[in-house]
Amino acid sequence: MGKKDKITADPMSQFRKKQKEKEKKKGKVDRVKGKQSRLESMDPNEVREKIRKLEQEEHNGALDGSGRQKKQELEDTLRQVLRKKAETEAELKSKQASLQPIPATVKSKKELEALNAKTYKNPEKSEHYHPIFNPFGAAPPPGHAPPSAAGGFPGAHLNLRNDKLGQVHLALPFTSQCL
């Protein structure tokens, strides 16, 4: 009976043990994510105000052991909030620095053409190029159908009619007369 630590031959108990370990790991990850999101949403000024109130109580002598512990937790939380804010600001700055700077205003048509030529090199080589409708050869936004050679559906360029002599052409069941 005291041999619970040893591996048993029962596969179901091993399976349950593994599932329990997975749940513990998942719970830990969820707690960490929740804590991070709470830290991001906290306002440091509110935490500082709570600490000031507890310090005033401590100065007046009305603060007990649990109050001191609460003050210590708030100070730790404040440090974490400030660290998280600094991390998010640094991350935001690095993202902004990595983006290509776009001039605020284009003064002349030549500057605009130079910027477009730099941005869209060799548009004629793009499969999306059209001299009138898409002169820069830019791809359509995600979710839009790719351009087709003819028609608006795949296989529109195929000849699906039987044009051999002696074959009968079947009419579609829904014609304009049916509607």
From TrEMBL:
Cleaved signal peptide residues: none
Biological process annotations from GO: RNA processing
Name by which UniProt lists this protein: Aste57867_20222 protein
Compositionally biased region (Basic and acidic residues): 20-61, 121-130
Wbp11/ELF5/Saf1 N-terminal domain boundaries: 9-81
Region feature (Disordered): 1-75, 121-155
Phylogenetic lineage: Eukaryota, Sar, Stramenopiles, Oomycota, Saprolegniomycetes
Coiled-coil spans in chain: none
Classification via InterPro entries: Wbp11/ELF5/Saf1_N
Biased composition (Low complexity): 146-155
